[in-house]
Amino acid sequence: MSALTEQFKRSLVIAKKNIKIYYLKGPVIIFGLVFPLFLALAYIIGRNVPLKEVLPGLIGMTTFFTATSVGPSIVPWETRSKTLERLLCCPVAFWTIIVGDMLSSFLFGLIISVIPLVLTLTLGIQPLNFMLLFLGLIIANLCFAALSVLLSAYPPTDVPATSMMLSSLVKFPLVFIPIEQLPLLGTAIASISPLTYFTDMVRQLFLSRGFYPLAFDFTAVIAFTIAFALAAIKLHEKTLTKRLS
Amino acid sequence: MDHISFEVKKGEIFGFLGPNGAGKTTTIRILTGLIKPDGGKAFVAGYDVLRNPIEAKQRVEVVPEVSNAYVDLTAWENLALIGKLYGVPTQKLRENATSLLKEFGLYEVKDKLVRAFSKGMKQRLLLCMALVNDPEVLFLDEPTSGLDVESARLLREKITRYNRDGKTVFLSTHNMEEANQLCHRIAIINHGRIAAIDAPENLRAQSMELQYIEVAFNKTVNPQDFSGNPSITRAVPAGNKVRIYTADPSTVIAFLVEYAKKNNLRILSLNTMMPSLEDVFLKLIRGKEAVIQ
What we know:
The complex is a heterodimer of chains A (245) and B (293). Chain A is mainly α and 245 residues long. Chain A has helices at 2-22, 26-44, 51-67, 71-80, 83-89, 94-122, 130-151, 160-171, 184-190, 194-207, 214-244.
């Protein structure tokens, strides 16, 4: 147990290092800040819909795009600068590095996604249960961060731009909003996206109506988080030899 | 790698020599737990690298050929990062980092981003990073490659001092002189196999057929004149001298004196040369003829 705690502490050290290095990189700023900002503006401006109605989608997309902006670039960047090799020489398990990457992506998403939430509260729009909403936000950020690290696993490129581009190609088709307006086939396809459950969760907590039960939304996001995290560790492990060659 | 097997004694500097693609870096990567071999076992500091990689890595450090410090972090932050990843307590880490940066002449630039460092400074920083957790075994992969003379000498001095403290050094290098100066024992690897493993002096002693005499006369002579002598393996021109390979220098010297008298020549210089480590290396890699030619 103490060995596990020690490894987790080292994950935090890696996350801190990532925060210092990658938060201010150009692609992270573009995909994690500029892009969600303009997306949010496009989502709000010119639509004759009450803010409360657009909030679930807005928070969902902001969280999704910010939490997935750091993860895809870390491993390619570290492969190119040979620092991945440096980390692997240290007494850290492979999962320690991946968890560190996920944590840094998670924190970035959490910090940015709290902004629309605070804005919402400032405008007097109250969720039904703030603690549940915040818990959902934390789990969703973890989920999307895990997805973002998974997206950098294949192909094992050392070009961050390639990884960012490919991750965008995967991310955009995962946006199914609003799910209740989709046809049956669309609903079925939307069920493979974790964003669907998070948006549904936020909708229930703001508008008291959702497509799935709230507990199901939470369970689904947690299940996606575990699946993405495990897949990220396994797939990165599998492609590691190619990265080091 | 092809079923290689070797042991490095505690407290020795062990050289690992081989041509490009011989398997030097692969060996280091296996021993430092970076890659897993298809088969076999590897123990470092008493720990099975495959079964207990974390415990093994906790006791070793690596200095690679190409700098892999974080260029977006300062020198201090790089040291702190590595120290923390090795679980060095904060106070101890601060003391170690300060003393290493001072020792390697980097203390004044400790708060500068590594991006602005020269190659020599980066390489010195890598050694600081490698020593910050006081490892038992240090792996060095071409540590002085491409460095200026001063930086290379400083690094060699530090490696020797570190070894004097009882630490083990595994040094992969192309630099024969460096290996000769630093290493207690040397392994020469070729095509994934160990071609020889011994102390540098013993390796040279095993290749006495590669010793040669360099002789200069007051007039130019044709090296072919010496080809009939059975004690002479080969005679080749070497500038204004003739280089004569022989396993029996005393007989050849007597022959050369006689040859000079007979042809009314004066011997300006005559030196017997032991085979260099480079000669031994070339002999093991490409065969005796490659050296003599």
